[in-house]
Amino acid sequence: MSRIYNFSAGPAVLPLEVLQEAQKELVDYKGSGMSVMEMSHRGKEYDAIHQEAIATFKELCGLDDDWSVCFVQGGASMQFAMIPMNFLGKDQVADYVKSGTWGGKAIKEAQKIGQVNIAADCQKDIPTRQPDASEYKWTPGAA
């Protein structure tokens, strides 16, 4: 079989070994007699998977136990709302660069939460390039 590599938005390339392990355990996850897709999200088997994922993520990111990890569903669009909800405090301004469609979507979501400054608008001001760092109009003390 010839593998095709997907570099599009959304799902990405996974190592063949990972896919083969998932395939092997799809019907019977580690001898549990059921697929992960059939497990209760409150069951001990699934909880072990969840705790291992958190521990691995913390290890990869160099996080100690002062940090909590929360896995949530949703893609880039959800992140556009979650970031200002978590970091844009009352009476603060968030600086954004409008560099294209995705930047515009992020700005639109942030404006629902609080005040937004467009530090650079690459579509309007400089449509053929990214601005030099000296051209950005940052807000002092921005969130």
- Tell me about the largest β-sheet: 2 strands, parallel
C-alpha termini separation: 49 Å
What shape does the CA trace take?
elongated
What would you call the structural class?
Answer: mainly alpha
Rg (CA only) = 21 Å
Query: Averaged pLDDT, please?
Result: 91
Please give the share of residues in helix.
25-40%
Low-pLDDT regions: none
Strand content: 5-15%
**What is the H/E string?**
HHHEHE
Q: Compute the number of strand runs.
A: 2
Cross-sheet strand order for the largest sheet: 1-2
Number of helices: 4
Short overview:
The chain is mainly alpha-helical and 143 residues long. It has helices spanning 16-25, 44-61, 76-87, 101-113; strands at residues 93-98, 115-121.
Structure characteristics:
elongated, two-stranded parallel ribbon, 4 helices, mainly alpha, 143 residues
Description of the structure:
The protein has 143 residues and is mainly α. It has a domain at 76-135. It is built from four helices and two strands; from the N terminus they run αααβαβ. The protein has helices spanning 16-25, 44-61, 76-87, 101-113, and strands at residues 93-98, 115-121. Strands 1-2 form a two-stranded parallel sheet. Helix 3 (76-87) runs parallel beside helix 4. The protein starts with 15 loop residues before the first helix and ends in a 22-residue tail after the last strand. 6% of the residues are buried. The model has no long low-confidence stretch (mean pLDDT 91).
